[in-house]
Structure prediction request, 393 residues.
Amino acid sequence: MHELSLALDLVERALIIAQREKVQQVRGINVLIGPDSGVDPEAFAFAFPEAAHDTLLAKTELRIQRGTGREFQFQSMVVEDV
Amino acid sequence: MDKKFSGNKPLLFQLSAMAPHAPVQRVISVEESIFQKNQDQAKKNREFFDRRGMKVFNVMSSPGSGKTALLAKILPRLMGRHPLCAVIGDQETSLDADRLQKAGVPSLQINTHSACHLDADRVARALAKIDARGVCGGAGGTDLGGGGADGAASGGGGADGAASGGRARETTDLGSAAHADLQGIEWLFIENVGNLVCPAVFDLGESFKIALLSVTEGEEKPLKYPVLFQDADLIVISKSDLLPYLDFDRQLLLKNVRVQNKKAPLVFCSVKSGEGLDELMGQLEDLNSANISTTKNHAFLERETLTMEKP
Prediction:
């Protein structure tokens, strides 16, 4: 379950960006996971709410797009400003 | 599309009619690897090792394939030529570090507790701990044999409590500490947590990755767990003394390994019979002198400047 530690890294990074951008809400996070990345998309999706618990991302929707190779990318985040 | 929005009126009008003060949505494009945080630390580790001319071997396998037994056998023999030390990752206990320590190898145990792999930050903190405890016998790095007397060196089971307690928020700066205890150390062996899956995707800043597979695990493992074998610079097939008792197909294994990895040297060896150990040590020397840069072919994108997409 290295997916949990990676989900924690994602949440940490997203929170840094959210703070810097002074966003009110983070609606969604888009990630790209390839079949050869060494990361299991289901396990990652399972781990994400746990990692996001009690943070600004607690209600954020994680959208996983499947890649073709070793991709494991934090693509973008959909945010709301005041 | 939701039924509520399917009327004739333009969508924007409907939205604003429903929620007159709707907040503005925008997309922040990030486009960076989620491995980035680990990668940032791995880069720092690698720079640290390069500055000191250290070669670092990240040894990975499933649990029980004989990583510690192999290291306890060959490291004492290699120490004469290359001052070295070892860092061992396990969920719990300091049993493995104790074993290596007993074999005369300066060793530090890392306990990962819940985690199934080592990451670059844990390695960085282990290096600081080696220095703080004088694992390698103090500055100078020449007095490497007498580690056994220094009880602090191998660390207790709970030694890594601080590391597991909270995740470091920033990367660990290796440049700020003197690390005098590592002075003169040429080789560092990192025995990863026994696991064929998770360790494979975390760069520790190592120079070389070594994949170990015991003959009892079967010929098909390189196909089932590709990443570890794809990235390995050296593949070791251990417990070869058991081959007479197994229906093990060497050719099939070789074929399966080569599906994943065309060029890594492959060595059959046994700690019991001694078969292949000289060859293995020769391969380590070859890697050492090959001086190849092992920035792996991870589809790893460097962090890009954030770009904003305003609607």
